[in-house]
Amino acid sequence: MCSDFVCHYYIRMDWPTSDGVPKMMYGTCCQCGHMPVKWYRCGSVHLEMSEPTPDPHVPTGEIASPEMSRILVVDDETSIVRFLKEVLEEAGYHVTPASTTHEAMGHLAAAAFDLLITDILMPGSDGLELARFTAGKYDTDIILMTGYAEEFTYELAVEHGATDFLVKPLRPRETVLRVKRVLRERALKKDRESMIRSLEEMAITDALTGLYNSRHFYGRIEIEVSSAGRYGTPLSLLMLDIDDFKEYNDTFGHLEGDGVLVRIGDVFRECLRKSDSAYRYGGEEFALILSRTHTPEAVAVAHRIREEIEASELSPRPGHSMRITASIGVAEHRPGESAADFIRRADQALYESKRQGKNRVSISRK
Questions:
Q1: Strand order in 277-282's β-sheet?
Q2: Residues 92, 177: one domain?
Q3: Which one of 85, 152, 311, 317 is most buried, by most CB atoms within 10 A?
Q4: CB 39 within 8 A of CB 25
Q5: Could you tell me the CATH number of the domain that includes residue 60?
Q6: Cα-Cα-Cα-Cα dihedral of 137, 143, 144, 148, to 10°?
Q7: The Cα angle at residue 109 between residues 108 and 111, in degrees rounded to 5
Q8: Burial 319-351 (b: 16+ CB within 10 A, else e)
Q9: How far apart are CA 35 and CA 58, in angstroms?
Q10: 3-state secondary structure 30-71
């Protein structure tokens, strides 16, 4: 019993069953052989079933796991939506149906979707505009579908932000494989992006303390100085050096010295605002950029950091308790001052703290 509806879409044969539970299987339309369709059968009815013939245009290869993937399906024809929902849910995906672009936009605003599958031509709706809107606003891949392959091409779909293109009549196997390919490539892309972010973070981070490194400091201080000059906002810089760190290393070893550096990083994270940033400048010396901060506030932060470091009790050996101290120099950026001169003044203030006996805060007055 073949019809255009059977060949173009999806049918369910609601035959009676001997046990009351229909059995489901894939086959080919018995008259035209055009597309795999899903049949139900009971023990009293026998159908010749065979695997669908592989289509060279259907993507193959390893497929991504469908777990947790959310798909939004948009078409004004309920038979198409029903077909896609059932086929994709059987493949393990969570499917949300919509019949208009307006309804689809509501779903997109309310929840995150990995994939949008939308028809191009719908009464009162424009699938191409929905694709363009989705591609520009959401992190969602797109598959466009149409029954007018002569008018709409794959190139047009890509131009509107789509990842792939389906031509009606839809075939279950091809549809599922194309969806899996798009989602697999999406997952691979996200993995690459995550790896790149990790590598970028590693390039600017000190592995021991977790603070930014000196390379990042020099780039950041230039940006902060430029911003302070452009907008007239205050900017302060703290330079910090651990007192007698070489002696501590020589006495207790480099591993215990590393523990001191890690503790210094922890103190910074406890004492600084999110808008501030801390850097391992070199060895046991650190730099802290305090944006939108005048000298009095910067000095208060410096004293809080110095006191926290001094209060930190270390145990480099069993039964042996030690405390460390730090010297700090503070400088506030001056209009027209270069980043190099700014750093130099903060360094000079640090050396003044060392000269005066260590474990203190000095302010650049020059």
A1: 212-213, 277-282, 285-291, 235-242, 326-332, 361-363
A2: yes
A3: 152
A4: yes
A5: 3.40.50.2300
A6: 170
A7: 65
A8: eeeeebebbbbbbbbeeebebeebbbbbbbbbe
A9: 13
A10: CCCCCCEEEEEECCCCCCCCCCCCCCCCCCCCCCCCCCCCEE
Residue where a domain terminates, one of 19, 38, 53 = 53
Q: Peptide bond preceding 52: is omega within 30 degrees of 0, i.e. cis? A: no
Dig out the tokens for 17 from the structure.
Answer: 């069953």
Closest by CA to 85, choosing from 93, 109, 174, is 93
Evaluate whether 279 touches 288 at the Cβ level (below 8 Å). Answer: yes
CA distances from 167 to 127, 154, 164, 175 (A): 14, 10, 10, 10
261, 283 in Cβ contact below 8 A? no
Co-location of 181 and 293 in the same domain: no
**Host domain of residue 289:** 212-363
Q: How many domains, the chain?
A: 3
Q: pLDDT tens digits, the chain, 366 residues: what are they?
A: 333 333 333 333 333 444 443 333 333 343 333 334 343 333 333 333 333 444 444 444 444 455 579 999 999 999 999 999 999 999 999 999 999 989 999 999 999 999 999 998 887 778 888 998 999 999 999 999 888 766 776 677 778 778 888 888 899 999 999 999 999 999 999 999 888 888 878 888 999 999 999 999 999 999 999 999 999 999 999 999 999 999 999 999 999 999 999 999 999 999 999 999 999 999 999 999 999 999 999 999 999 999 999 999 888 888 788 899 999 999 999 999 999 999 999 999 999 999 999 999 999 987
